[in-house]
Amino acid sequence: MKKEILTLTFIFMLLAAVAPMMPIGAAKKSDKTLFKDDFKKTSLKDWTTVFGTWTVQNEKLTQTVQSQGGDWYQRPAIVADFNVYDSFRIETKLNHVSGGSVAILFRYQDMGNTLFVIFHEGINIIIGNVVAGVEDNNWYDFSYSKGTEYDVAIEVQGAKIDLYVDGALIASNDKWGSAYSSGKIGFDTWFASVTVDDVVVRTGKVSKAKSEFKLSQSYSDEFKKNTLGDNWVFINPSPNPSGQSYSLTANPGFLTMTTTGPNDLIGTTDTAPKIMQSAPDGDYQIVVHLLANPDAEMEHAGILVYQDVNNFVRLLRDKNQDSVGISQQNNGAYGWSFMPFSGSDLVLRLTKIGQTYKGEYSTDGIDFVSVGILENPFTPNSIGLTVVSTPTDNVFSADFDYFRVYAR
C-alpha cells in the first residue's frame, strides 16, 4: 500500500475535563435514518456479496475466511443495496476479530473505485480511495484490540471524512473524499475475519452530549495547600537515586516532582518516584494539567494507573519521539501508542471504561487529541502521578497544576 504519513489532527470537542460523547447510535430528533440492518434475520436480502463468503451468525454480519486478500477485486466484500450521497454518517459496531485489515467502504462504485476507512493490524487507521484500481491514502497511528467490538462512526460532509471510535474523534481527512459524490456502503477484509452489527446510515452529524462522569472531590486535588492531603502517599522505591522529591512550595499552586535518575518504572528497575492514592471502583477519568519540558531521552512525566510493576497503564509527556504516549504493562508484556508533541504545557486525560484505557491530550483543555486506546484486564489498586529519567542521570522536574478524577 502507498503510505503518506500525516501528523494526526484528532479533535475531540467538548468542555474542559468532561468525559466521552454519548453513544454514537443516539440520533438527534432532526436526523433521518436512511438505512438500517441489525442482522436479526439471516437472509441478507438488502446486501450483495461481491466476493468471498458473508453470513449472519449470532445476529452479526460475519466473514471468517482469512486466506483471501491481495488486490481490491480479490478481497471478500459485501455492499448494501443502498446509495449515499454528499452528506451522511455511517454507524456500526465493528469487531476486527483477527488477521490483517478490515475496511468500511462508502460511495462505492465497484471494488476498483471506492472510498474507504481501514482498521489495520491493530495499530493503524487508513483513510483513502481507490480510483481505477489505484489506491491513495493517509495512515494514522491508532492502537486498538483485535477481538474487541467498537462503536464506529464515519461522518462524511462532501470531501471531509471524520472517523469516530467509541465516541472520540480519531482522524479527520479531506484529501480523498472528493473522488466520488455518491455510491453504496459496505465492508471488506484483507486476510482477516470480522463481525459487524447494527449498521445505520443517517443524515446529520455525530451527536455530542454532556459528560457521563462527575467530578469526585474525594479523589481530586488542586494542590493549593503546602502539604499533601492524607489520601496521598509519596513512594520513593529503594534502592533509588538520591534527591528524588516533591514540593508544594517550590512553585506555589503546583505539585513539583523531581527525579535525579537513572530510574524506571518497569520490573526490577522500579525506582521512579510516585505520588499515589487508592483507585476508585468502576469506570473513571483522570484529568491533569501538566507543565513539563523533558530535554533528554527517556525523561517523561504524567498519570499512572497502577497494580504492580508488571501491570499498569500510564499517560505521559515523553521526550522519546517528542510525544504524548499511552503505555502499559500487561502481565509483563509491554504495549504503547503515541502522538508527536513538543510543547511543555498540556492537559492529559486518561479514561478507564471496563478494561479499556483511552489516552488524550489538549493544549487548551477543550479540544483533545486521541493518543490511543489500550485493553488491559488488570485491577488497579492505585492512581497518581510519576516522573521518570532513564538511563540518564539528569535532574528532571515536572509541575502538576491539578489532579481531577471524574467517576460515574
| Count of alpha and pi helical runs | 0
Q: Provide the succession of SSEs.
A: EEEEEEEEEEEEEEEEEEEEEEEEEEEEE
Class computed from helices, strands and strand pairing: mainly beta
* Biggest pleated-sheet summary: 13 strands, antiparallel
Mean pLDDT: 86
Report the end-to-end length measured between terminal Cα atoms.
Answer: 43 Å
CATH C-level label of the largest domain: Mainly Beta
Q: In which range does the helix fraction lie?
A: under 10%
Q: Radius of gyration in whole Å, from Cα?
A: 23 Å
CATH topology of the largest domain: Jelly Rolls
Indicate how many domains the architecture comprises.
Answer: 2
Strand content: over 45%
Any idea what the CATH architecture of the largest domain is?
Sandwich
